[in-house]
Each structure stands twice: as structure tokens, then as C-alpha cells.
Amino acid sequence: MMTTLSIEKNLQTLYLGILGRAADPDGFHYWLEQIESGSVDMDGVSAFMLQSEEFQARRIELSELEDNEWINEVYQSLFAREAETEGIEYWSEQASAGLSPQALLQALIGGASPTDAEALEAYASIANFYSSSVDADSYDAERPLVQDGFRSNEQLYQDLEALDAIYDTLSLEQVGESLEGRPLYSATVGEGARQLMIVTQQHGDEPTGTEAAMHFLEWLSGDSEAAQALREQVTLTVMPRVNPDGFERWEGLVAGELDPETTIDPRRNSEDIDLNRTWDSSEVIDASLIPETTAVRQVVEAIQPELILDYHNQNNYINESGKLDTMSVLWPTNDDVDPTITATAQQAAVAISQGLDDFDYGYLSLFPGGDTPQIARNGIAIDGVPTLLIEQRGLEELSLKALEGLELDFDAVSSAIVLEGVLSMLGVVEAMGQNSFDSIDPALATLIPERGERIEFDEIYAEEIEWAGEGEESHQGEIVAGLDTLMESTPIIGTSQPLHQELLVA
Prior knowledge:
Elements: H1 7-19, H2 25-36, H3 42-51, H4 53-63, H5 69-79, H6 85-96, H7 101-110, H8 114-133, H9 153-166, E1 170-177, E2 183-189, E3 194-200, H10 208-221, H11 225-233, E4 234-239, H12 244-254, H13 291-303, E5 307-314, E6 317-318, E7 327-330, H14 339-355, E8 364-366, H15 376-382, E9 387-393, H16 395-403, H17 411-433, E10 453-454, H18 457-461, E11 487-489, E12 496-498
Parallel strand pairs: 3-4, 3-5, 5-9, 7-8
Antiparallel strand pairs: 1-2, 2-4, 6-10, 7-9, 11-12
Helix pairs in contact: 1-2, 1-3, 1-5, 1-8, 8-17, 10-17, 11-17, 12-16, 14-17
């Protein structure tokens, strides 16, 4: 599934591939104006960059690397992954035969496999967001753009404790334990009258919402004028990864340490219960079997949020334009939900749509959910709290890695999905903090297009992907950029602070 990139993203591919960085704001806007005016085309920009002192210095550095390691560096710059053995051999032969740097770059990009082409778009999208959002003084050419995998449970707990130690604006509380004794945390930022709650990873194999929530927590806790202003209006409470036991199993399956045939589905808790089927208050479920749900309920009762955002991952769906949906949302649909509760969740869906306007990646759609009261979106809403479901792409890839040994570097795409999650959270908090939330017309949510048709992973990528034990992947090239592009690094944690011109919040 190849993608035609915009002018902006194509320009970013040149910066990433030739100079090994996202475009600096001044250079980005200069070349964009030159291209749009017809003064130069992409080949002209490429030729100029290849003649620059910056590229010549980088070329010398790469040439000094041993064992054709320069090819790995180029792959990382373009695709945020290691080159496969065949790729190293092929491109080293091409370079030895006299292939020019410009021709090499064009061949790498032009010959990108479907997964690399997808990574290219993700990387370029995040780089484009960064270049368009950061000011010249804050721009950092060394900032990594792709997040490497997902936090382990231990790293998540360390990062939460570090955030608590660093920021007086954040308070951390252990509010329960999972069945296997892992801590369940609640992190709160802000002192505003408006109460928002975010819950992530009810299903252990759906981790991107947790990553987004951690990045957003750190930014909102920080010293920027935007964060300070929002904290005065909004109080945010986050419960990240409420199914840590399931995630632990997912990691074990991916590492090949557990047998899929004998391991409880990482989607479920350790009593083999789907936590997102435990929200009907009229049903009696032994609380000892679902301490994770109990912990969330207790926090909801304690803080009485006016809105809950519930983050998940979903399979792949292709829309009418032939593109993959990256986020799907849905408000309560049970008939017992008060219409005003439903309207608030619909307003949140619109706020998310608005929050994603500045990110040229992915597609927002409407999740086709049912009316069962057992799921959080309906059950919590029946109890009086508006709840919006947010489903992001990635479940199939993550499940295949765990259950069938899929060998796929998904970091580029997952980083873009995480950034999408951050911006969705920001969209809601901005609307609440700037007093525009209540004026949103809930009916606008019904204009969000319906989710596309299910498409299997194998159908998307055909014969490209190798499986564990069957050999190596044979991808060639794609440009990827990731979440840390958006973030300012924090020395202790390495989560981050978004630079989106103070996230465009005054």
C-alpha cells in the first residue's frame, strides 16, 4: 500500500535522508517557498543539500564507520530501523560500483517496501509537525524522532515516580494492585475546576495510549506558559496501563519466553477476564477477580470527572480513499444513557478532531460499537459519567508479534500513533481549558466518517513480511519520524515536553 507524499513530507525525506535530521524551521519554510513558486524542484533541493558543507561533513563521518555501518545509519535516518543483511550487501555493492549519493537516496526511497513506505510517511509526518511547530531558537537537530518500543512495567513505574519527584505540579498515588500484585497508579496534574480523566490499556496488548498519556502528563506538568494556563482551568487524572499483568504477558510472548498455546490472552487480566466487559453496575462480579476495574471505579467515584477518555488499539481498517484509519472514536450508545451525557462525549470527539488538525497523518473515523452496558463507554456513562472510546491502529501488528512471531519494526508507525494520541488529549484539554468545550455542537460528531472495511495484515503487505524462523525481513527503505520529535527531552526520564509553539495555547 504505497503512499504519495505531500510536498512537505517529500522535503522532509530529503532532510532526513541526506542530512539525517528533521528540517530546521527557517530552511524548511525557505525551500517550501522555492518549490511552491516553481524556482526549484525536489531534485534541485536534493542537489543543493548534497553539495552542502553539512552533508560533506556527514559523508566523511559515515565513511569512517566500519563494516558498512554507514548503510545502517542511512536506514535509521530514513526508516528508523536496522538494515537487513541483504540490504547491506546490496547497497554496499551499488556504492562500490559508483552509484552517486543522490541516486542511492532515490533508489532507497523509490524501492521502499510497503512497510518501509508506511514508515516513511510516519517519520516524515512527525518531522513535518516538528519543523512546522518549533521556533528557530528551540529547534534541536539532534532530537530523536522515534520512540524505541514501549515502556516495560518497571520503566513505567520508574517514570511515574520520577515525574512525581521532578514536578510539584503532579501528584502520584497508588490506588490498587493487579491480580499479580503490580501497582496501579493515578497521576493528577492541575487545579482547575474542570475534571478530566484518562484511562489506558484495559487490554494489556494495547500500549500506545499509555505512551501518549505519559508524554502528555509530563508536558502538562511542565513550566511552559501553555501548560501553566491549562492547569489553572483543568485538573487531569490519568490511570495508565490498568492491565499491567496482560502487558507483562504480551512482552513475554514477543520475546519468545511464553507459549501462546498455554498463556492467557494478554488482552485479558490474569483471571482470564476482559476488563472492558466488567462495567455493568447491575451485574454482580466478584471484586477479587477484577481488582483493576475496582481501582478505576474507586478513582472515578473519588474525583467525579466530567469526562473520561478510554484509550485502546484496534485492527486495520481501510477507508474509501484507500487509506488506513488510524483513530476511531465513539460516544455512549446505550439507550439508558442520559442524552446530556452522550452529548458531552460527542463534544469530546469533536475536540479531538480539532486537536488533530495540525498533524498531517492518519485518518479519524467513527467506531461502529454496540450498546452493551458491560463496556466502559456505556457502563460508566449509564452511571452518569460521559465516556469516550478512542481506538487507535496497531492491534493486529502487536498481536501478530506476540502470537505468531511476526518480525516487524513497528517503532516508526507506533511513534506517529502515539503522537496522534498526545494531540487528541491536548485537543480535549485545550477545549476545556479555553472555555470552548461547552460551545461545541455535539451534532458535529456525527459528521465524522464511518470506519472503513476490515483489511487483514497479510492483505496489506502481501508476501513482504517474514515470520519468526523463516528468515529475515527484506525491506528497503522508508522514512520514519517519531514522537520525541515533538518533545523536549527531560534528563531523568526521557519522556518529553511538546514544543508545538507552546502547543499554540496562550
